[in-house]
Design brief:
Belongs to the acylphosphatase family. It catalyses: an acyl phosphate + H2O = a carboxylate + phosphate + H(+). With about 120 residues, the protein is of the alpha+beta class. It has a single domain, classed as Alpha-Beta Plaits (2-Layer Sandwich), CATH 3.30.70.100. Helices cover about 35% and strands about 35% of the residues. It is built from three helices and five strands, in the order αβαββαββ. A five-stranded mixed beta sheet has the order 4-1-3-2-5, covered by helices on one side. The chain is globular, with a radius of gyration of 14 Å.
């Protein structure tokens, strides 16, 4: 891994760990697929989603797509997923131009959040 990427990843982890969570009202468990397009690759976007999702106990995965977008499946409390999506949309070092979100069926067997290479 190059020096720049190591430094960027350290910064992304530091930044994601500093995100302040509001007091959430308990909400229903949902699963959503979110696709983000714009300048979302090579800026630590996947790592940021991963770090925040793990802190919030959201399960699922995130991956880069060949077209330059980032796709994620997120499962957890509706309020947590909405907060995470809004965090990513307002991320300063990325530029989300388009976002598509669809509802998916819950996966009972999922226990963690991963980055898919």
């Amino acid at each position: 891994m190059g020096l720049f990427k190591k430094l960027r990843n350290k910064y992304v982890i530091w930044h994601a760990n500093r995100v302040k969570f509001p007091e959430f009202t308990p909400s229903i468990i949902v699963r959503k697929k979110a696709a983000f397009s714009g300048r979302v690759q090579k800026v630590g976007f996947r790592l940021e989603i991963y770090c925040i999702a793990r802190r919030m106990k959201i399960t699922g995965w995130v991956r880069n797509l060949k077209d330059g977008s980032v796709e994620a499946e997120l499962q957890g409390e509706q309020s947590h997923i909405d907060f995470l999506i809004n965090c990513m949309r307002s991320l300063k070092r990325a530029s989300v131009k388009k976002m598509a979100i669809i509802d998916l069926p819950i996966r009972e067997d999922e226990e963690s959040f991963t980055i898919v290479e």
